[in-house]
Each structure stands twice: as structure tokens, then as C-alpha cells.
UniProtKB/TrEMBL annotation:
The keyword Lyase applies. Transmembrane segments: none annotated. Pathway: Porphyrin-containing compound metabolism; protoheme biosynthesis; protoheme from protoporphyrin-IX: step 1/1. Catalyzes the ferrous insertion into protoporphyrin IX. This is Ferrochelatase. It comes from Roseateles aquae. HAMAP family: Ferrochelatase.
Length: 363
């Protein structure tokens, strides 16, 4: 094992804090070649596909990476923005805004973003932060709900970097914010704004990214956290049980995934007479292929083909004021938990220690 060589430690220098905002990652271009590189890295992660390695590598390289890249590239092309992939564009904007907002609130810290798959990698950004002198790094995965496939995979990658790093910064991780009041309030505000502008559908469908159903039995909290976000959002909007649904999208492979599935549910709604639906994706902090293509295009078409008449997609929080307020406030509360530079008045603590010592001596 070799460790990285680093600038010598300067004794007595003040702690320097940094924030690393991590998202999933996205291909560099809407092309089959770029998709092949991206999918090869993403789908080789044992946190994402939990089947025996050898079998999976044969399927992945023998079938999936031959067929899927071209199909997925065409889908990406349909949502590509002039600055690049939507997930990249929104994540970069959120990072810039976080830097500005936290700065205005008096936090002297560097904010960077990293992608779990593709670029900029988590390791490269952690190296850059260390080189800039960061001694404390708060790692903020963009996912509101915790899952092994997403949040834990970010932690794995940070741990891999740590294994090679001599002088580690203090590290903290935000595991989840699915039930934080600021986050629920931001979602509710985005739905209310949408209703005000476009009118209100008969049902609000809350569509979350899926996971294999077995992850629920294996102890992954993701399903429960999605349901909780859904319930809290419904409460914030004053919706009754018959006015909203929680569904799961983006099934991958043939195994059973978390149910109910989004698209079949939308078709059933249309078939049973629901004409107008609003769809929101509260598991995604930013719009991406899965929301813009799979929901706003494909699922919409399926609903209309099945007899629905109006399908309104409610965008993710992206760089909205309410969304940024939520991200900033969540980051801030985690940053404030870090000990401050100024020595606290420890006289009460000292007296307590003396009492404990005296009690111990007489016991
Ligand atoms: C929001 C949380 C996400 C979970 C949980 C998740 C699990 C998961 N995903 C796949 C397979 C794919 N996902 C893909 C895209 C994708 N997934 C998420 C988020 C979660 N995934 C996002 C934000 C995106 C969009 C990325 C973008 O560039 O816009 C894709 C790639 C696209 C495609 O080819 O369909 C795959 C593949 C699995 C297997 C999984 C859990 C087991
Ligand atoms: Fe995914
Ligand atoms: Fe998808």
C-alpha cells in the first residue's frame, strides 16, 4: 500500500471546512460510446447490482453493454440541454448557489460537487479539497432518501479514497433528509406553485426511483423513507388518502422491483376514469433522464394513450429558491455541529470532571 504524498502539516493552523455535494453522475455526451463508459462504471458497482460478480460481469459485458448504450443515448439526446446533461447542469448550479448562500450566512468554506460515476470523480474532488487545505469535509449526497445503491455507494467511494490518503480530514456524511421539514416544505411549495399556475389534477402521483424488491427484506430503509416523504408531502398539501399515490419507476432487469410501478399505475388510473394527473418525483433533487424522459415523456404518453387527457409533470426542486433554501439549511445544520475554533468556556465541565473523580475515589 502506498499513500499519497502531501504538503507538510502546518501546526496550529485553523480548521478549514469544505462541503462536497455528491450526485449520481451522468454520461459526458448523448452517444453510445459515452453511455458505454458510464454504464460500465455504474453497473459494475456491487452496491447497484447485487448478484454474484462473475455471472453479472458476463451478462453486463456480454449483453447489456452491447445493447443498452445506443438505446439510452437516444433517450439522453431527447433531454440534453445546451450546457450538457440535465443532471450535470442542475448539480453545478446547485453547488454554485450553495457556495454563495452559505457564504452569505457567514460560513467560510469551499463548496464543490462530485459525481459517483463519471466526472468530476469523488476522489479527484477530495484531492482538490485536501490540496486547498481542507481539514474538515462534509459529504452531502444529493439523495433525499437513503439507499445502499446510492448513499452508501458514495460513502464507499470516499472510504476508497481515504484508504490511500495519509493525512485524513475529519469526515462527516449526511445520510438522508427525506423527512426534514425544510425539504417537505420545499416540495409542497413547488406543488402549490404548479397548481396555482396550471390548475390541479384529480390525483397527485409521487413517483420515486425503484429498487429491487428484495432490498426491502434485506433491510434497506429506502422504501420506508419514500413512503414517509410521500405521507409528509400529502399532509403538507392537505391531501386525503384517495388524492395521492406513491409509485416506483425506472425498473431495471427482470426481477421484481418495489411496487406499485409508476407507468402501469398511470395506465390503470386512466382506464378507471381519472382524466387529469399531476406527477412529482420527490426522490430526485434535480431533473435528469429518469424524470424528463421516463416520466415527462414516456409515462405521459402511456397515460394519454390509455385514455387520460391531462398529464402535468411538476419539475424537481432543481435551483428553485425553495429547493436551495432546503439544501442550504440542511447543510448548515450539519456544519454547525462541528466544534468551533474558539475554546468554549469549560469551567462547568471541569467542575463536573472533578466531582466525578472525587466520587470515583470514594466508591
Ligand atoms: C434517486 C435514487 C436512485 C436510485 C435508488 C437508483 C437505483 C438504481 N438505478 C439503477 C439503474 C440505472 N439508473 C439510471 C439512471 C439514474 N438513476 C438515478 C437515481 C437512482 N438510481 C438517476 C438520478 C439517474 C439519471 C442519471 C442521468 O444521467 O440523468 C440508469 C442510466 C440510464 C439508463 O440507461 O436507463 C440506469 C441503468 C439500478 C440498477 C438501481 C438500483 C439497484
Ligand atoms: Fe437509477
Ligand atoms: Fe429509466
Amino acid at each position: 500500500m502506498t499513500f499519497k504524498s502531501e504538503a507538510p502539516y502546518r501546526h496550529g493552523s485553523a480548521p478549514k471546512t469544505a462541503l462536497l455535494f455528491c450526485n449520481l453522475g451522468t454520461p459526458e455526451a448523448p452517444t453510445a460510446a459515452a453511455l458505454r463508459r458510464y454504464l460500465a462504471q455504474f453497473l459494475s458497482d456491487p452496491r447497484v447490482v447485487e448478484i454474484p460478480r462473475l455471472v453479472w460481469m458476463l451478462i453486463l459485458h456480454g449483453i447489456i453493454l452491447r445493447v443498452r448504450p445506443a438505446k439510452s443515448a437516444a433517450k439522453y439526446a431527447s433531454v440534453w440541454m445546451k450546457e450538457g446533461s440535465p443532471l450535470k447542469v442542475w448539480t453545478e448550479r446547485q453547488t454554485k448557489l450553495l457556495q454563495g448562500m452559505l457564504g452569505e450566512r457567514g460560513h467560510r468554506l469551499e463548496v464543490r460537487h462530485a459525481m459517483r460515476y463519471g466526472n468530476p470523480s469523488i476522489a479527484s474532488q477530495l484531492d482538490a479539497l485536501r490540496a486547498a487545505g481542507a481539514t474538515r469535509i462534509l459529504v452531502f449526497p444529493a439523495y433525499p432518501q437513503y439507499s445502499g445503491a446510492t448513499t452508501a455507494s458514495v460513502v464507499d467511494d470516499v472510504a476508497r479514497w481515504a484508504l490511500k490518503t495519509r493525512h485524513l480530514p475529519e469526515l462527516r456524511f449526511i445520510n438522508r433528509y427525506h423527512d426534514e421539514s425544510v425539504f417537505i416544505a420545499a416540495l409542497a411549495e413547488s406543488v402549490l406553485k404548479h397548481w396555482k399556475q396550471h390548475g390541479r389534477g384529480e390525483k397527485l402521483v409521487m413517483s420515486f426511483h425503484g429498487l429491487p424488491a428484495r432490498t426491502l427484506q434485506l433491510g434497506d430503509p429506502y422504501h420506508c423513507e419514500c413512503l414517509k416523504t410521500g405521507r409528509m408531502l400529502a399532509e403538507a398539501l392537505g391531501l386525503g388518502k384517495d388524492q395521492y399515490l406513491v409509485t416506483f419507476q425506472s425498473r431495471f432487469g427482470k426481477a421484481k422491483w418495489l411496487e406499485p410501478y409508476t407507468e402501469p399505475t398511470l395506465k390503470q388510473l386512466a382506464a378507471s376514469g381519472t382524466r387529469r394527473v399531476d406527477v412529482v418525483c420527490p426522490g430526485f433533487s434535480a431533473d435528469c433522464l429518469e424524470t424528463l424522459e421516463e416520466i415527462a415523456q414516456e409515462a405521459q404518453q402511456a397515460f394519454l394513450d390509455a385514455g387520460g387527457s391531462e398529464f402535468r409533470y411538476i419539475p424537481c426542486l432543481n435551483d428553485s429558491a425553495e429547493g436551495m433554501l432546503a439544501l442550504c439549511s440542511i447543510a448548515e445544520r450539519h456544519l454547525l455541529g462541528w466544534p468551533t475554533q474558539s475554546a468554549p468556556d469549560d469551567s462547568a465541565l471541569r467542575a463536573q470532571a472533578e466531582r466525578a473523580r472525587a466520587a470515583g475515589a470514594t466508591a
